[in-house]
Amino acid sequence: MSAISQQKQELREKVLAERQQISAGEWKKKSEKIISSLTNADFFKEAKTVHTYITMDQRREVYTDGLLEDILNGNKRAVVPVTNFEDGTLTHSEISSLSDMKKNKWGVAEPKHITPVNVEELDLIIVPMAAADRAGNRLGYGKGFYDRFLREAEAIKVGLVFDAFLFDEIPIEEFDEKLDVIISEKEVIFA
After folding, report:
1. For residue 166, what are the contacts with CB-CB under 8 A and spacing of at least 6?
2. Assign residue 136 a region: left if phi > 0, alpha if psi is -120 to 50, beta otherwise?
């Protein structure tokens, strides 16, 4: 493991441990502020097809269930990732309701039935992460699923992060994909 990879792993472990200390009430409250900033942004209002991650509660990610409801209730297509852990890829499926979802064997919510969507159809991608910096760099979860996906996409890439995990600079490697916008509960940063 390279020195930068080691730094990233240490920061990831620290951030994920600290996120577990956020109370359920604070987690939801901060998430609602972040989602409100996102849904009020012009780039969100203009997007027709929005790809968003499904929150993994055990990771205390910015909560996206309300966002999915906003997308589904608006005039937008909702697209979610389907993770193939065997080959390290993501596929993308449209959903028409939150009831279209079920937990997979890893406890991650995914569509019951896959309705494939090509990456070229996406206008906006909401990206999960552990942490970010003000330059648009993200610290993911270490598997590279999103970096490979984002490399193919022309869509606007937006990261949602709690302010406590928004740093001036985080360690990055050449394969790490930058984001266009970072949103915390305190600010919106165009990178």
Report:
1. 131, 132, 133, 134, 182, 184
2. left
The pair of three-digit structure tokens given for residue 97, joined into one six-digit string: 């309701």
Angstrom distance (rounded) from CA 59 to CA 165? 13
Tell which wins on pLDDT, 143 or 42.
42
Contacts (Cβ under 8 Å, ≥6 apart) of 28:
63
Angle CA 26–32–38, to nearest 5: 140
Q: Provide the pLDDT for residue 183.
A: 98
**What mean pLDDT comes out for the span 149-154?**
93
The pTM score is: 0.94
Question: What residues contact residue 100 under an 8 Å CB cut-off, 6+ apart?
Answer: 111, 112, 113
- Residues 6+ positions from 57 with CB-CB distance below 8 Å: none
